[in-house]
Amino acid sequence: MFISLSSFTVANDMGEEVKTAFINRPHLVDEAPGFVRMEVFTAQENPNEFWLMSYWEDEASFNVWYESHKYHDSHNGIPKGVKLVPKSVWVKYFNRVSV
Predict the structure, then answer these.
(1) pLDDT (tens digit, 9 = 90+) per residue, 11-65?
(2) Distance spanning both ends of the chain, measured CA to CA
(3) What are the residue boundaries of the ABM domain, all occurrences included (predicted)?
(4) CATH number at residue 20
(5) How many domains does the chain have?
(6) How many helices (H) and strands (E) does the chain have?
(7) Can you tell me the distance from the alpha carbon of 12 to that of 62, in angstroms, rounded to the nearest whole number?
(8) Dihedral sign for Cα atoms in the order 19, 82, 45, 74
(9) Range of the domain at 64
(10) Under a CB-based contact definition with an 8 Å cutoff, are residues 34 and 61 in contact?
(11) Which of 14, 22, 51, 83 could form a disulfide with 41 if both were Cys (CB 3.0 to 4.6 A apart)?
């Protein structure tokens, strides 16, 4: 299993709008070959800090999705006016070792 973990922090107190956008997301990724699931979290000490974990059967499936037009389309639901804390965006990739 391949896991993509990404994080970002909303700078202008629009965390609730971003949370609502994730809840109401169009689920475009759900039909992508190799996609397993996605989980979205906010940090307890900072509700403007978001963590996304997407689970994939393999890295190749993730890469196909990441380079697709549907990946870019999935970001159309980002609320207008959202600004991110500079340098708060990062992505890290993992391979599952054990359950």
Answers:
(1) 998 999 999 999 999 899 999 999 999 999 999 999 999 999 999 999 999 999 9
(2) 11
(3) 2-91
(4) 3.30.70.100
(5) 1
(6) 3, 4
(7) 30
(8) positive
(9) 2-95
(10) yes
(11) 51
State the Cα–Cα distance between residues 63 and 22, nearest whole angstrom. 21
Tokens of 23: 């809840």
- The span from the CA of 37 to the CA of 32, in Å, is 10
Q: Tell me which residue has tokens 């006016």.
A: 81
55: amino acid identity, one letter: Y
- By the 8 A CB rule, do 23 and 15 touch? no
Q: Residue 37 belongs to what H/E stretch?
A: strand 35-43
Can you give the three-state secondary structure of 71-95, one letter per residue?
HHHHHHHCCCCCCECCCCCEEEEEE
